[in-house]
Amino acid sequence: MKKKLLSAxxxxxxxxxxxxGCGSSEPTQxxxxxxxxxxxxxxxxxxxxxxxxxxxxxxxxxxxxKVYYLNFKPEQAQAWEALAAKYTEETGVEVSVQTAASGTYxxxxxxxxxxxxxxxxxxxxxxxxxxxxSDYCYDLAGTDVYAELKSDDFALKEGDAVKGLAYVVETxxxxxxxxxxxxxxxxxxxVVKSVEEINSFEQLKAVxxxxxxxxDDLGVKGAxxxxxxxxxxxxxxxxxxxxxxxYYEYQADGIGATDAIKGTYIDNYKAIWDxxxxxxxxxxxxxxxxxxxDATAEFALGEAVFYQNGTWAYGDLSANGMAxxxxxxxxIYIGAEGEENQGLCTGSENYWCVNKNAPEEDIQATLDFMxxxxxxxxxxxxxxGEMGFVCPFKAFDNYPATNPLxxxxxxxxxxxxxxxxxxxxxxxxEEWKNGVGxxxxxxxxxxxxxxxxxxxxxxxxxxxxxxxNN
Length: 470
Fold this sequence. Notes:
470 residues, alpha/beta, D-Maltodextrin-Binding Protein, domain 2, 6-stranded mixed beta sheet, 19 helices, globular
């Protein structure tokens, strides 16, 4: 039952995310720093994929071709390089992997795609990102790798053409240090006695305020890690946190996208942002210099109890010495009605595409490599184990991810909580996100007021949507 529930939620989330982006276009992809892995998709899902047409997938052309993968996820760079080397060792086919620096994927792709030796394999973030790169995307319908996909819910399509394949489903929320939180629950000043009681913004704020007030006794610097606003961290707030007010507005209005956001939940956005920057390890005036690495270190060292991030952060936290049993995850509560039934934010913005302008032999080599990655023991072990991915391909039924945060995400689903869709894929442009991010920082530093954030959020949306679409 747990697996069936999760399957339904993930499929619904993916469909909602895809449909939400339809009809809009964006000149830049979402450039969130990653993040990796997420809710379990081991369950059986009836595939809608047609039988593979192997007439085009021949080893002869692959042997003369080569593969160049432009990787989006910096935290998996070494694992991809090792996997590429293994494939080359086994097949003799040259596979090179280049990883874009955090927050630079779009600009890197634009630069690389114009070269003679352009990437043969790259990614887009969904329907909005596809609008920019569709003319470069090979139709994957009828290929072996497409036939390995569990469901068409994970295919990025234009009409009957398959332009991209989701290769990882991800989840984010507020990661917490279970050890420190359990210590807090035993204190006389604790406002709740279990994590189950933290099921609303009101309760989250009460706990965070209490922890901040008693930080010295608990041995922490703050309730939340620093909300750094440099490019390695700002995506967590101008994109992932901003997803919540957009999601709830879409829910209230019964829509999946808009050309003019109203900002119905902008005050809720302010409330959670205020909590992040006041109950924190640092003063809000220094956020411009704080990085994603700072936040990771603060959390791993036990200097903070809460850390907004996703299941992709597990690798870094584990590498920094955190034990699996020390990790938990809460939904991001913003004070919306009915949020006690809210789960974690689940979706995908990672779709593999093949460069149709590459030489024919390189296209075939790339298709063969992709199939190997999602069917071989080496590929599945690397993606599910080393990279911590939850992958929507058939073979991964036998390769459960080792990331403990995935089990937490599963628990929310099995308990009947409603996953929050990734509506940020409908944000009109990267420029819109940058405007919101700048306004958030100015507000935090005291050099701007909240009205500027609202202006960037609401008026900026309409302006950017018009600029992109007209």
